[in-house]
Amino acid sequence: MLIQIIVVINYSLQGVWIVLQLIVATFLSIKVIKTKRYNIIPLILFFFISSLRIISFFMSPSFLIIFLIMVQFPNILLVIFTKLTFFKHKKSPFKVFLIILIIVRFFDFIIRINFQISIPMTYYLEESNLIFYYYILFSITISFLLSHLWLGITALRYYKIIKSSNIEPWIKLRYGLIGWGSFIYTFSIFLYYLIPYDIIGLFAFPNIVYGYIILGFTVCYSLSMYFAWIMPKCLKNRLNKDFQVIEEKEYEEDELLEIVKKELSERNS
Amino acid sequence: MDRYINSRETFKFIFFISYLIILINSEDDMPIIYYLGDLLSEKIGISASASRGLIKLSIKEEFGPFKPISDIGIREYQDTFNNSLKKRLQDLKISNSEEIVNLLLKELITHQSLITMEKI
Questions:
Q1: Cis amide prior to A196 (ω within 30 degrees)
Q2: In chain B, what residues touch A231 (CB-CB under 8 Å)?
Q3: Going by C-beta distance under 8 Å and a sequence separation of 6 or more, which residues neighbour residue A136?
Q4: Chain A residue numbers touching B3 (CB-CB < 8 A)
Q5: pLDDT tens per residue, range A1-32
Q6: Considering CB atoms only, which of B22, B30, B71 is closest to A30?
Q7: How would DSSP label each residue in chain A?
Q8: What is the CB neighbour count within 10 angstroms for residue A123?
Q9: pLDDT of residue A59
Q10: Contact partners, residue B43, CB within 8 Å, separation at least 6
């Protein structure tokens, strides 16, 4: 009975983060059409693929190959999003990160397909193959560090730059949520190191404990992304209540140039 | 089959929710122009509102009156600063116009993510 409750709670929490990410992805897809901000597309694919791979995994074991292919892409897409949004025409470690990720994820795919390695393991792994288990751990770590941590640090650094600028507070909060959400989520990878390779199944002790903590991190991450990208109007208004919105008067060209010339001559006199 | 129908229904539901959220969240327009306009105002010593007007005018000159300013991306801003804004500053006899344009371009690159963050 207790196990059944644990399983139901686990699946419900999985459902929560999957639905949250699908809502964000759908929302951003509509926004991309409206605003033509095409640099968002990798982020949309990141959210879609991250959620759909789990759905494909639960729907049928015959989708395993699709699942294994899907596992390889989200982190690469996130790195592309960071580059296109923060570092276009600007020096960045993007190329190095991308090459490392592609190589690491390629071997990750080969190993997973040959040895069906997952964390936690679903069968007893021979000690001679333990190196492959550690490779998968290494692959997850590198993927999180290069994608989530890079995005997290970049967003937080920018948040620090604009913190005292005359920019609407809700935009600042968006950077903060993306930054802190990604930064904290990165550290969930270290919990994978605590999961023993020789204890089989997600619902065995202590795997279940670590599994739940990791799931907690994932739900928090999905929530922060949800509020960062789909910030409710009432929250925006609340954040902006002390912000002075500039009322802009529309000038005709000649009128504006007259004002500029007048202001320039006043400055020079 | 049931599972297929259920997943179709779920996707329809998610799409509907997202569309509702977009309808509820009305457009907020706080372009990067406000930030760069403040900078230009500081550099050439005119009011911030006149500086923003100058940038908007340059964009209209570069891309015509029918392109909404909110659709302008980083490349278009770069073209605007390098061409029409630079020419306007020179016409206004601003001595260090080249230096000011370079500063605006540098700040645009630094703050490029704002173009995305403020529009989504």
A1: no
A2: 25
A3: A108, A111, A112, A117, A118, A119
A4: 59
A5: 778 888 888 888 989 999 999 999 999 999 99
A6: B22
A7: -HHHHHHHHHHHHHHHHHHHHHHHHHHHHHHHHHH--GGGHHHHHHHHHHHHHHHHHHH-GGGHHHHHHHHHSHHHHHHHHHHHHH-TTS--SHHHHHHHHHHHHHHHHHHHHHH---SS-SSPPPGGGHHHHHHHHHHHHHHHIIIIIHHHHHHHHHHHHHTTSSS-HHHHHHHHHHHHHHHHHHTTHHHHTTS-TTS-STTSTTHHHHHHHHHHHHHHHHHHHHHHHS--HHHHHHHTTT-----PPPPPHHHHHHHHHHHHHHHH-
A8: 11
A9: 74
A10: B100, B103
Look up residue A86 and give its two tokens. Answer: 């923060």
- Site from A20, A170, A248 to mutate, B interface, most B CB atoms within 10 angstroms: A248
Q: What percent of chain A has pLDDT over 70?
A: 97
Nearest residue to A112 (alpha-carbon basis) of A140, A86, A144: A140
Whole-angstrom Cα distance, residue A175 to residue A236?
14
Q: What are the chain A neighbours of B92 within 8 Å (beta carbons)? A: 260-261, 264
DSSP per-residue string spanning B56-107: HHHHHHHH-TTS-GGG--HHHHHHHIIIIIHHHHHHTT-TTHHHHHHHHHHH
Token pair belonging to A157: 């650094």
Judged by CB atoms closer than 8 Å, whether chains meet at B26 and A27 is answered as no
Note whether ipTM > 0.85 here: no
In Å, how far are A181, A192, A209, A244, B106 from A220, measured between CA atoms? 7, 17, 17, 32, 36
Note the pLDDT of residue B28: 43
In this structure, of A61-65, A94-98, A209-213, the range with the lowest mean pLDDT score is A61-65
Reported as a single tens digit per residue, the pLDDT across B15-43 is 666 656 655 444 444 458 888 888 898 88
pLDDT tens digits, one per residue of A135-166:
999 999 999 999 999 999 999 999 998 888 87
Cα A210 to Cα A130: distance, rounded to the nearest angstrom: 20
